[in-house]
Protein: 4-hydroxyphenylacetate decarboxylase small subunit
Organism: Oceanirhabdus seepicola
Amino acid sequence: MNIKHNDCLHFSNIDAAKGICRLTGNIVEIDSDACASYDKKAKCKFCKNFTEESTDGIGTCVGLKVNDWVYGELNAVTCSSYEEK
């Protein structure tokens, strides 16, 4: 998996294609490669409780004991079951 700017804690979305790096203030494309200041954002796709079941990033979360379908890109900063893979 390539690490992209939108996987970084310092990235803030502007729209569907670009965002701002909160460290540098530069505008960056969402899907461009992350820089050396990369700090991993908590997302479902990085959690050990997430099992990806399709090529479009949809999977199952078993951490909340409800086995719900979730998107891997979902922000998991406030999830009580988040555990880094």
User: Anything to note?
Assistant: The two ends are 13 Å apart (CA to CA). Strands lie at 11-13, 18-21, 27-29, 50-52, 58-61, 68-71.
